[in-house]
Amino acid sequence: MTELKILAVDTATEACSAALLVGDKLFSRWEEAPRDHTQKILPMVQAVLDEAGLSLAELDAIAFGRGPGSFTGVRIGISVAQGLAFGAGVPLIGISTLAAMAQGAHRLDGAERVLTAIDARMNEVYFGHYELCDGRMQLVGEEVVSDPAALIEARGKLAGSLSCVGTGFETYGETLNALADELAVSQVRFPVAVDMLPLARAAWLAGEAVAVEQATPVYLRDKVTWKKLPGRE
Length: 233
Description:
This is tRNA threonylcarbamoyladenosine biosynthesis protein TsaB. The chain has 6 helices and 10 strands.
């Protein structure tokens, strides 16, 4: 059986990363670069391919951070992934950025129950609750975008200890601490492409890869209300 080869790219948050799975080997690049995603991501992709001695055409699939996250960042990530996949003739696998962060907490901290929250601006967070199953973080319930106080009211308090990851806990920690009896703060702040790979591998084996034109982002926030400028009502 040939080795499975999956490239992962993520630009959905302030971080930018690329990673490559070749059988059981991992190659990874990551950098916090809030405004340089378009300049950083393709060199990172080339770096992991060069390190592994592979070309795009040898890949089985490309995974991308499908969101939620920055609107611009999510769009950059899916556009890059679609361009690479179209050129290589391979399918795409969308991976939740929240799930990738939860997977990172397991990799780095051994966490098995994780709450993820990304600061969504506008006094809201992108939120997900994950629990470990067969080495991968599985979503409990749904990912949502919510005002932190409304989230507490809707979810209630979870029993036991959970790890918390993401910028949402940095910004709204005083409120979000009410989500569990005990919260352990993880070192994970942003998604990392290398943590998308276990999830992408499982998705590939389950037949969940899609054609390039079928890949879609997940924003969670369907509509944004902007203040209208004078003369633009």
